[in-house]
Amino acid sequence: MGARTKYRKRALDILFESESRGLSADGTLADRLEVNDPPVNPYTVSLVKGVAAHIGEIDALLAEYSVGWTLDRMPAVDRNLLRIAVYEIKYLDDVPDAVAISEAVELAKELSTDESPRFVNGLLSKVSQVKTKPVPPSEPSEPSEPTE
């Protein structure tokens, strides 16, 4: 298992624990940093804080592109894996989209249901496509005529 894979898995553990306890996404991060056993890598911290800072936008993307599944119906592991990967896809330029997707799929294979890897792959692929799709320029508006 690569170093960043371990850091992502640790971020998943923290996000999952926070959600299970009904806390904000980074609600247990301070506790984990204080205990520091096992040590919390800076990349893990950046993932947890990044997800927490953008959770509204991330969840909106997931809700928009997940076909037939609301966020509440998704297994908690999948939901938090997806949040980490969407954060990496949307906000981190140093992580190629394909790497973020592959890592999430591998963690889903290891930690979630038999159907999860395919679901995670499809949803993240769609998010990646939408992220890279150029936005068409808006039509210039006609100047309005002055009213008398």
UniProtKB/TrEMBL annotation:
Region annotation Disordered: where it falls in the sequence: 129-148
Domain of life per record: Bacteria
Every NusB/RsmB/TIM44 domain range: 6-128
Annotated InterPro entries: NusB-like_sf, NusB_fam, NusB_RsmB_TIM44
Keyword entries, A-Z: RNA-binding, Transcription, Transcription antitermination, Transcription regulation
Gene3D superfamilies referenced in this protein's UniProt entry, alphabetically: NusB-like
Keyword Transcription found: yes
PANTHER family documented for this protein: ANTITERMINATION NUSB DOMAIN-CONTAINING PROTEIN, N UTILIZATION SUBSTANCE PROTEIN B-RELATED
Functional summary from the UniProt entry: Involved in transcription antitermination. Required for transcription of ribosomal RNA (rRNA) genes. Binds specifically to the boxA antiterminator sequence of the ribosomal RNA (rrn) operons.
Family designation: Belongs to the NusB family.
Name the record gives this protein: Transcription antitermination protein NusB
Organism: Aeromicrobium senzhongii
